Amino acid sequence: MRFTxxxxxxxxxxxxxRFVTYEARDVSPxxxxxxxxxxxxxxxxxxxxxxxxxxxxxxxxICGSCSLVINGIPHGPDRGITTCQLYMxxxxxxxxxxxxxxxxxxxxxxxxxVVDRRALDRIMQAGGYVSVNTGGAVDGNVLLIGxxxxxxxxxxxxxxxxxxxVAACKNASAMLFVAAKVSHLALLxxxxxxxxxxxxxxxxxxxxxxxxxxxxxSECEAVCPKNISVRFIAMxxxxxxxxxxxxxxxxxxxxxxxxxxx
Amino acid sequence: xxxxxxxxxxxPLETKWDRRRFSEKLVSPNNKRKITVIVVGAxxxxxxxxxxxxxxxYHVECFCFHDSPRRAHSIAAQGxxxxxxxxxxxxxxxxxxxYDTIKxxxxxxxxxxxxxxxxxxxxIIDQCVALGIPFAREYGGQLANRSxxxxxxxxxxxxxxxxxxxxxxxxYSALCWQNERxxxxxxxxxxxxxxxxxxxxxxxxxxxxxxxxRVSVHTAHAVVLATGGYSNVYYLSTxxxxxxxTATYRAWKQGAAxxxxxxxxxxxxxxxxxxxxxxxxxLMSESLRNDGRLWVPTMPMDHRCPGDIPAAERDYFLExxxxxxxxxxxxxxxxxxxxxxxxxGRGVGPGGHGVYLDFGDVIDRQxxxxxxxxxxxxxxxxxxxxxxxxxxxxxxxxxxxxxxMGGLWVDYNLMSTIPGLFVIGEANxxxxxxxxxGASSLMQGLADGYFILPYTIGHYLATANLPxxxxxxxxxxxxxxxxxxxVSRLLNVRGSRSAASFHRNVGExxxxxxxxxRNEEGLKAALTKIPVLREAFWREVMVPGxxxxxxxxxxxxxxxxxxxxxxxLLCHDALHRAESCGAHFREEHQTxxxxxxxxxxxxxxxAAWEYREGLSPLVHKxxxxxxxxxxxxxNYQ
Lengths: 262, 637
What we know:
Helix content of chain B: 25-40%
Shape of chain B: globular
CATH class of the domain at 267-402 in chain B: Alpha Beta
Radius of gyration of chain B: 24 Å
Largest interface: A-B, 78 and 85 residues
Largest sheet of chain B: 5 strands, parallel
Strand content of chain B: 5-15%
CATH architecture of the largest domain in chain A: Orthogonal Bundle
CATH class of the largest domain in chain A: Mainly Alpha
Order of helices and strands of chain A: EEHEEEEEHHHHHHH
Number of strands of chain B: 19
Strand content of chain A: 5-15%
Strand order of the largest sheet of chain B: 5-2-1-9-17
Low-confidence stretches of chain B: none
Oligomer: heterodimer
Strand order of the largest sheet of chain A: 2-1-5-3-4
Mean pLDDT of chain B: 95
Low-confidence stretches of chain A: none
Number of helices of chain A: 8
CATH architecture of the domain at 267-402 in chain B: Alpha-Beta Complex
Number of strands of chain A: 7
CATH superfamily of the domain at 267-402 in chain B: Succinate dehydrogenase/fumarate reductase flavoprotein, catalytic domain
Number of domains of chain A: 2
């Protein structure tokens, strides 16, 4: 197979970027999208040119490094996968493929297709944790967690922090990312004591980083490689509302870890 | 001259760790504030260590080459984490986890270390639950378990097929808390390129900022390496492409002994290599062997579709050779058995590099839905990569380099032969002997990071004499000079071949001569070919761009240059160890039916290698004594 690639090239964060056209030849259908790019880069290196910079690491869809907008869609045309899990058999021979970086104000471009996603780490640092010291934890079975609840928490916790949700959103909102973390911890008894503060500070951090707000159009869910549902955004909104009530001083539900809340 | 004192506390096995913790000196809270510790690597071991040290009050500088600590390759561990909780009441205990791990490692690890690992395993689960890790639960709300290879109890805790991800995100969230508290400063996209050793003590690192290209010195009172394993020396492995040997290899060149580098684990169940452009091998979790049955046709060169081969003409070779453990034989044994049937010409798929992993029986017995619930994500992954549907035809699998038991030598306190340089997780050699059992790497990484290093490093910091070392110290300047010289040398070759082409060559060489089975002749051949390849690299490599910018090819070329040196050390060790044990199989040392022959008289030791400039590396031996278990022939039949 062969393809014509229009790839975004940009030397640095403050340089002007542009599309450059490359030909990918001798591509086999069993090659992954990133292996196809590897082979284009090998050709560039052989001729002494700088290869196209792009992020990748585990190449099995879990590390969240790879981050390409392919023909306008983050992680490409298939649902529920990352770029590294996309194979060339998905494209027709001689297709023209446009490859761009994640585009969002909060994700400045470092070079070519590589962006700086540290804003997501800063949101996590604001409150995406349970404040628990190492040592002295009680036995893991002391607090029972029903299977359904644990499974729902796991659905949310599956987020790989790739940022595709941001790239897909016309407001460049990180709501799905924040929702996944807030919901995961709010669903579990261990996360309950800090749930009020957590949702407030994480949303505040999201705003400060320059992410937009939710437009309720669910593009994020459509491109999420882990199929994280926008239902968690509803849960986030509920947590936020609840936090507002608690912080306003009105009587709220007890913060007991056994308290049931759905 | 390197001294290998393991510093194991004397006395009963069960109380060694308690007594060591009591006898260790502590650093007072006021003094902790004045102490800086560098942690390199932010995977399970690094993130858990950095967050715990920060919580204790030390000032921590944590480095990783990824854009975020959450991307470390611990994240890809699928199956689970072991702990001797005995929640299933199936006869598990600390003693049994200890024995399984020592035996699984073919009696090439230290009793005291392994026992401590089994002891702290239960705390790890509690800690992880407290951090909010959504482990799989039973309907009644209790933690669920599954079985793994090489053991007969059910002690593996899991989060679907993403256990490593959840444990890493837990450690990362603990790290985030310490970032917020100002105790840990993160340095993402920063790669260690050398170690600063002053008066024999590790006092800092030289790191390159991967975005700006700036090379700088960072000094501290102690340095912790948590930089993972070196399976990528084989080019094709299940590791992430960024995983590399550079940190541990550079530390070796500064005087840290490298122990048992030839103990490299080849995982039996990966998707077979296909295309020549392939960049990695994808692991299929060991948990598949709970229900999947491995087989090949009885007749060589049988090209019929698997469904057309009747049961009588199938060889379920693991069940035949190891009836007691069957398809759950340990990884080293299963991998070799796969290789053996493929060498007989009975392999299936392109090039005969594959065997079937068949779920037909379990689907017939329990139905599609049960299999889909247990393994759905793995079947999906298989289909995406191969385009084949494993619900209707058996998977094809083949072994792949996966984990390295070898690593920098450490004593019981996890300190290397350089005082002040601690090594944790896969980067050290300590706990898995010659073979690691499934679901033990997550256990070891977190044991080291959460529960062992934070104690032992305190004793060093409380007792060592550590004068101030600045960035302008002569050793700091010398280390910077070494790094900048090397970076400019890489950029100035301006040849015509990519670093990847050399990486592929050295990987093939090692796979052929120092892979699943090894022999003297092959290893000697590799030892003559590697230097030739290395010289070619320094003559012909092409690294475009400059050192003052974001330059991924420069990063990669530096790592490949280290593989080209490290490969030689690996072969030296494999040649030295003239016995078969665990994952290290020397063809000269096998029984008539192809089982490995260990030699406890000559090789019941850790081989720790010392770097000597311009000379071949020198081996030192730490004898392994077994006071509490009797080394036996490892029998899974």
